[in-house]
């Protein structure tokens, strides 16, 4: 049986080779993205101007691996406030051109700029004067020359050792799509509120929930008027099952809060004969309805409380319990 010529275990040699290969790929792609960033200028800004001025949607298209990247770019644009959709170039030639209107813009990806399947899309754009933005590495390619604006990919080698599989080129396309999406987001002043509208589900959606989304309000709000007797306060506390009751004036202004802790501190034979005003805690800690629920969790933890009244301009509009946050998946 032959023995390895190296003292290093063959498996370790393979591992070293794998890591070296991966580092080479990442290094090539990182250099290409850096080159892309350095090349951005007037054409990039004009592309943003075109997209910003569209009253319809951005139609993102590409064939093969570029098509997969186009799918992702369309999704990112849509989720950050720029309506977009993906149209397959081959399907476009068989009826899907009807998905594209004069109010849209076409965003076409092709590293070579000579993708045959894009021909009908390009002709359609020119016929109906639909803005065409090209993303290509072919400066004098058919696509680049036909486009209203061409965003050129930097000259860089594919990370594939044969130079055949789209690797660096598609990574750069993806990065450019992200750059465009975020630049448009910042142009529009896209807010967390708007972001939450498009991301209601999953962990991201839960992080963006606001206090107003999960607080108890309306008929569920445990409140009594100033001057009420303590038996009434106890009945409301028990019925609402939130461990507190707010004392408000005729205008709904929160004057104080009675909690389970207040009851324990005031426990005596005279408790039920007192007015709620005498038992309540004035100047109780409150939060606003427009803050994030995750902020409210931090506030309650910092103050060692399990519930908190929500006020708007001094008016009691809700109550938030830590269990509400847990049920919503926030805490």
Question: Quick summary of this structure?
Answer:
With 331 residues, the chain is α/β, with parallel strands linked by helices. The chain has 15 helices and eleven strands.
Secondary structure topology:
Layout (H helix, E strand, L loop, with lengths): L9 H30 L2 H12 L4 E5 L2 H15 L4 E3 L2 H4 L12 E5 L9 H9 L4 E5 L5 H5 L2 E4 L15 H21 L3 H7 L3 H6 L3 H4 L8 E3 L4 H11 L3 E5 L5 E6 H6 L10 H4 L6 E2 L5 H10 L4 E6 L2 E7 H6 L4
Parallel strand pairs: 1-2, 1-3, 3-4, 4-5, 6-7, 9-10
Antiparallel strand pairs: 7-8, 10-11
Helix pairs in contact: 1-7, 3-7
Explain the overall architecture:
It contains 15 helices and eleven strands. It is α/β, with parallel strands linked by helices. It folds into two domains: 21-190, Rossmann fold, CATH 3.40.50; 211-327, CBS-domain, CATH 3.10.580.10. The strands form three sheets. Strands 2-1-3-4-5 form a five-stranded parallel beta sheet, sandwiched between helices. It is elongated and about 90 Å long. The protein starts with 9 loop residues before the first helix and ends with a helix. The mean pLDDT is 89.
